[in-house]
Protein backbone atom coordinates (compact mmCIF):
# COMPACT_ATOMS: atom_id res chain seq x y z
CA UNK A 1 0.00 0.00 0.00
CA UNK A 2 1.26 3.46 -0.89
CA UNK A 3 2.15 5.75 2.04
CA UNK A 4 -0.47 8.30 1.02
CA UNK A 5 -3.22 5.68 0.98
CA UNK A 6 -2.07 4.31 4.34
CA UNK A 7 -2.08 7.77 5.92
CA UNK A 8 -5.54 8.47 4.51
CA UNK A 9 -6.83 5.19 5.97
CA UNK A 10 -5.40 6.03 9.40
CA UNK A 11 -6.79 9.58 9.22
CA UNK A 12 -10.26 8.40 8.21
CA UNK A 13 -10.39 5.80 10.99
CA UNK A 14 -9.12 8.35 13.53
CA UNK A 15 -11.67 11.02 12.60
CA UNK A 16 -14.52 8.51 12.59
CA UNK A 17 -13.57 7.15 16.02
CA UNK A 18 -13.09 10.63 17.52
CA UNK A 19 -16.57 11.63 16.38
CA UNK A 20 -18.02 8.49 17.93
CA UNK A 21 -16.40 9.06 21.32
CA UNK A 22 -18.33 12.02 22.65
CA UNK A 23 -18.62 12.57 26.41
CA UNK A 24 -19.88 9.11 27.32
CA UNK A 25 -19.90 8.05 31.01
CA UNK A 26 -16.51 6.35 30.71
CA UNK A 27 -14.90 9.46 29.25
CA UNK A 28 -16.47 11.67 31.91
CA UNK A 29 -14.95 9.51 34.66
CA UNK A 30 -11.55 8.94 33.04
CA UNK A 31 -11.05 12.22 31.21
CA UNK A 32 -12.70 14.77 33.49
CA UNK A 33 -13.15 13.46 37.03
CA UNK A 34 -10.03 11.33 37.36
CA UNK A 35 -7.39 13.94 36.41
CA UNK A 36 -9.10 16.55 38.58
CA UNK A 37 -9.15 14.22 41.60
CA UNK A 38 -5.60 12.94 41.05
CA UNK A 39 -4.24 16.45 40.63
CA UNK A 40 -6.08 17.96 43.59
CA UNK A 41 -5.04 15.16 45.96
CA UNK A 42 -1.43 14.98 44.79
CA UNK A 43 -0.92 18.73 44.97
CA UNK A 44 -2.48 18.93 48.41
CA UNK A 45 -0.39 16.10 49.85
CA UNK A 46 2.93 17.24 48.34
CA UNK A 47 5.54 17.99 51.00
CA UNK A 48 6.93 20.97 49.09
CA UNK A 49 4.82 22.71 46.47
CA UNK A 50 7.40 24.70 44.53
CA UNK A 51 7.42 25.35 40.79
CA UNK A 52 9.37 22.20 39.89
CA UNK A 53 7.12 19.98 42.00
CA UNK A 54 3.97 21.46 40.48
CA UNK A 55 5.33 20.93 36.97
CA UNK A 56 6.31 17.33 37.71
CA UNK A 57 2.96 16.46 39.32
CA UNK A 58 0.92 18.02 36.53
CA UNK A 59 2.75 16.15 33.77
CA UNK A 60 2.66 12.90 35.75
CA UNK A 61 -1.10 13.13 36.34
CA UNK A 62 -1.84 13.78 32.66
CA UNK A 63 0.28 10.81 31.51
CA UNK A 64 -1.08 8.49 34.22
CA UNK A 65 -4.64 9.23 33.14
CA UNK A 66 -3.55 8.79 29.51
CA UNK A 67 -2.37 5.28 30.42
CA UNK A 68 -5.73 4.48 32.04
CA UNK A 69 -7.49 5.79 28.96
CA UNK A 70 -5.25 3.68 26.70
CA UNK A 71 -6.41 0.53 28.51
CA UNK A 72 -10.05 1.62 28.31
CA UNK A 73 -9.80 2.61 24.64
CA UNK A 74 -8.17 -0.68 23.63
CA UNK A 75 -10.99 -2.72 25.13
CA UNK A 76 -13.74 -0.30 24.14
CA UNK A 77 -12.84 -0.28 20.46
CA UNK A 78 -12.89 -4.06 20.33
CA UNK A 79 -16.24 -4.24 22.11
CA UNK A 80 -17.62 -1.75 19.61
CA UNK A 81 -16.27 -3.80 16.70
CA UNK A 82 -17.86 -6.96 18.09
CA UNK A 83 -21.23 -5.25 18.64
CA UNK A 84 -21.15 -3.77 15.15
CA UNK A 85 -20.10 -7.05 13.55
CA UNK A 86 -17.08 -5.44 11.85
CA UNK A 87 -14.21 -7.05 13.77
CA UNK A 88 -13.76 -10.08 11.51
CA UNK A 89 -14.08 -7.96 8.35
CA UNK A 90 -11.40 -5.52 9.55
CA UNK A 91 -9.08 -8.35 10.49
CA UNK A 92 -9.37 -10.28 7.24
CA UNK A 93 -10.03 -7.50 4.71
CA UNK A 94 -7.85 -6.61 1.75
CA UNK A 95 -6.36 -3.57 3.51
CA UNK A 96 -4.02 -3.89 6.53
CA UNK A 97 -6.33 -4.14 9.51
CA UNK A 98 -3.71 -2.85 11.92
CA UNK A 99 -3.84 0.53 10.19
CA UNK A 100 -7.58 0.74 10.90
CA UNK A 101 -7.04 -0.33 14.51
CA UNK A 102 -4.17 2.16 14.91
CA UNK A 103 -6.28 4.94 13.43
CA UNK A 104 -9.18 4.20 15.75
CA UNK A 105 -6.88 4.15 18.79
CA UNK A 106 -5.30 7.42 17.62
CA UNK A 107 -8.67 9.12 17.21
CA UNK A 108 -9.97 7.90 20.55
CA UNK A 109 -6.81 8.86 22.45
CA UNK A 110 -6.54 12.26 20.73
CA UNK A 111 -10.10 13.04 21.77
CA UNK A 112 -9.38 11.80 25.29
CA UNK A 113 -6.14 13.81 25.50
CA UNK A 114 -8.00 17.04 24.75
CA UNK A 115 -10.52 16.26 27.49
CA UNK A 116 -7.78 15.30 29.98
CA UNK A 117 -5.71 18.44 29.33
CA UNK A 118 -8.84 20.58 29.58
CA UNK A 119 -9.81 19.05 32.92
CA UNK A 120 -6.25 19.44 34.21
CA UNK A 121 -6.10 23.10 33.15
CA UNK A 122 -9.46 23.80 34.78
CA UNK A 123 -8.31 22.17 38.01
CA UNK A 124 -5.14 24.27 38.04
CA UNK A 125 -7.23 27.41 37.55
CA UNK A 126 -9.71 26.50 40.29
CA UNK A 127 -6.92 25.67 42.76
CA UNK A 128 -4.97 28.77 41.67
CA UNK A 129 -1.89 26.70 40.93
CA UNK A 130 0.25 28.33 38.23
CA UNK A 131 2.32 26.14 35.92
CA UNK A 132 4.91 27.83 33.74
CA UNK A 133 6.05 26.05 30.56
CA UNK A 134 9.61 27.16 29.82
CA UNK A 135 10.11 25.27 26.53
CA UNK A 136 6.60 24.94 25.03
CA UNK A 137 7.84 23.77 21.63
CA UNK A 138 9.78 20.83 23.02
CA UNK A 139 7.02 20.08 25.52
CA UNK A 140 4.60 19.85 22.59
CA UNK A 141 6.99 17.52 20.72
CA UNK A 142 7.13 15.27 23.77
CA UNK A 143 3.34 15.35 24.12
CA UNK A 144 2.83 14.36 20.47
CA UNK A 145 5.30 11.47 20.73
CA UNK A 146 3.67 10.40 24.02
CA UNK A 147 0.28 10.38 22.30
CA UNK A 148 1.66 8.28 19.44
CA UNK A 149 3.31 5.94 21.93
CA UNK A 150 0.02 5.56 23.79
CA UNK A 151 -1.71 4.83 20.49
CA UNK A 152 0.78 2.12 19.61
CA UNK A 153 0.39 0.67 23.10
CA UNK A 154 -3.38 0.70 22.66
CA UNK A 155 -3.03 -1.16 19.36
CA UNK A 156 -0.73 -3.73 20.97
CA UNK A 157 -3.08 -4.20 23.94
CA UNK A 158 -6.05 -4.58 21.61
CA UNK A 159 -4.22 -7.42 19.85
CA UNK A 160 -3.53 -9.04 23.22
CA UNK A 161 -7.18 -8.72 24.22
CA UNK A 162 -8.27 -10.38 20.97
CA UNK A 163 -6.07 -13.39 21.65
CA UNK A 164 -7.43 -14.20 25.11
CA UNK A 165 -10.74 -14.93 26.77
CA UNK A 166 -9.66 -12.81 29.74
CA UNK A 167 -9.35 -9.36 28.23
CA UNK A 168 -11.22 -7.63 31.07
CA UNK A 169 -9.05 -9.27 33.73
CA UNK A 170 -5.90 -8.53 31.75
CA UNK A 171 -6.80 -4.85 31.50
CA UNK A 172 -7.18 -4.68 35.28
CA UNK A 173 -3.85 -6.41 35.80
CA UNK A 174 -2.10 -4.00 33.45
CA UNK A 175 -3.68 -0.78 34.70
CA UNK A 176 -2.85 -0.41 38.37
CA UNK A 177 0.73 -1.75 38.62
CA UNK A 178 1.79 1.01 36.22
CA UNK A 179 0.79 3.51 38.91
CA UNK A 180 3.57 2.05 41.07
CA UNK A 181 6.28 1.16 38.57
CA UNK A 182 5.55 3.47 35.64
CA UNK A 183 7.89 6.22 36.84
CA UNK A 184 5.21 8.90 36.61
CA UNK A 185 3.42 9.71 39.86
CA UNK A 186 6.13 7.84 41.76
CA UNK A 187 9.60 8.98 40.59
CA UNK A 188 11.71 6.07 39.28
CA UNK A 189 14.68 6.97 41.46
CA UNK A 190 12.76 5.97 44.61
CA UNK A 191 11.86 2.52 43.25
CA UNK A 192 13.86 -0.62 44.15
CA UNK A 193 16.53 -1.35 41.57
CA UNK A 194 14.82 -4.38 39.88
CA UNK A 195 11.56 -2.45 39.63
CA UNK A 196 13.37 0.63 38.35
CA UNK A 197 14.91 -1.45 35.57
CA UNK A 198 11.48 -2.75 34.60
CA UNK A 199 10.05 0.76 34.53
CA UNK A 200 12.74 1.69 32.00
CA UNK A 201 10.82 -0.45 29.49
CA UNK A 202 7.69 1.68 29.84
CA UNK A 203 7.67 4.43 27.25
CA UNK A 204 5.46 6.79 29.25
CA UNK A 205 8.15 6.96 31.93
CA UNK A 206 10.47 8.55 29.38
CA UNK A 207 7.69 10.74 28.05
CA UNK A 208 7.11 11.95 31.59
CA UNK A 209 10.81 12.68 32.10
CA UNK A 210 11.27 14.48 28.77
CA UNK A 211 8.13 16.62 29.04
CA UNK A 212 8.81 17.49 32.69
CA UNK A 213 12.34 18.63 31.86
CA UNK A 214 11.08 20.61 28.83
CA UNK A 215 8.43 22.30 30.96
CA UNK A 216 11.17 23.14 33.46
CA UNK A 217 13.42 24.64 30.79
CA UNK A 218 15.88 21.87 29.84
CA UNK A 219 15.82 19.59 26.81
CA UNK A 220 17.26 16.09 27.08
CA UNK A 221 17.42 14.42 23.65
CA UNK A 222 18.45 11.09 25.17
CA UNK A 223 15.08 10.73 26.89
CA UNK A 224 13.26 11.52 23.65
CA UNK A 225 15.40 8.98 21.81
CA UNK A 226 14.54 6.23 24.29
CA UNK A 227 10.86 7.18 24.08
CA UNK A 228 10.92 6.91 20.29
CA UNK A 229 12.88 3.65 20.39
CA UNK A 230 10.46 1.98 22.80
CA UNK A 231 7.51 3.20 20.75
CA UNK A 232 9.06 1.68 17.62
CA UNK A 233 9.57 -1.59 19.50
CA UNK A 234 5.93 -1.61 20.59
CA UNK A 235 4.90 -0.97 16.98
CA UNK A 236 6.92 -3.93 15.69
CA UNK A 237 5.39 -6.16 18.37
CA UNK A 238 1.88 -4.91 17.55
CA UNK A 239 2.26 -5.58 13.81
CA UNK A 240 3.67 -9.06 14.49
CA UNK A 241 0.91 -9.93 16.96
CA UNK A 242 -1.77 -8.57 14.64
CA UNK A 243 -0.35 -10.80 11.92
CA UNK A 244 -0.76 -13.81 14.19
CA UNK A 245 -4.35 -12.83 14.95
CA UNK A 246 -5.09 -12.41 11.24
CA UNK A 247 -3.48 -15.78 10.49
CA UNK A 248 -5.72 -17.48 13.04
CA UNK A 249 -8.79 -15.74 11.66
CA UNK A 250 -8.06 -16.71 8.06
CA UNK A 251 -6.61 -20.20 8.40
CA UNK A 252 -8.41 -21.53 11.47
CA UNK A 253 -11.62 -19.53 11.48
CA UNK A 254 -11.15 -18.17 15.00
CA UNK A 255 -10.06 -14.94 16.64
CA UNK A 256 -9.47 -15.99 20.24
CA UNK A 257 -7.02 -18.65 21.36
CA UNK A 258 -8.54 -21.71 23.02
UniProtKB/TrEMBL annotation:
Subcellular localization: Membrane
UniProt cross-references to InterPro entries, sorted A to Z: ABC2_TM (IPR013525)
- GO CC list: membrane
List the Pfam families hit by this protein, alphabetically.
Answer: ABC2_membrane
What membrane topology does this protein have?
Answer: Multi-pass membrane protein
Which residues span the membrane?
28-46, 58-78, 98-126, 138-163, 169-186, 224-243
Q: Provide any one GO MF term from the record.
A: ABC-type transporter activity
Locate the ABC-2 type transporter transmembrane domain: which residues? 14-207
Leader sequence residues: none
Q: Which UniProt keywords apply?
A: Membrane, Transmembrane, Transmembrane helix
Q: What is the protein name for this chain?
A: ABC-2 type transporter transmembrane domain-containing protein
Taxonomy, top ranks, is:
Bacteria, Bacillati, Actinomycetota, Actinomycetes, Micromonosporales
Amino acid sequence: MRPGAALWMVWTAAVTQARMQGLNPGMIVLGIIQPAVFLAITLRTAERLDTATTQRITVAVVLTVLWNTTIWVAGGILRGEVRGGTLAANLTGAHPGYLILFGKCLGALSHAAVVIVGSTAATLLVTRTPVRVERPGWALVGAVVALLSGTVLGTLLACLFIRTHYGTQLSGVLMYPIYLVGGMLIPPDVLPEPVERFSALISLRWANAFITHAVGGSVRPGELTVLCGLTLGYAVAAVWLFGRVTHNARSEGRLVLD
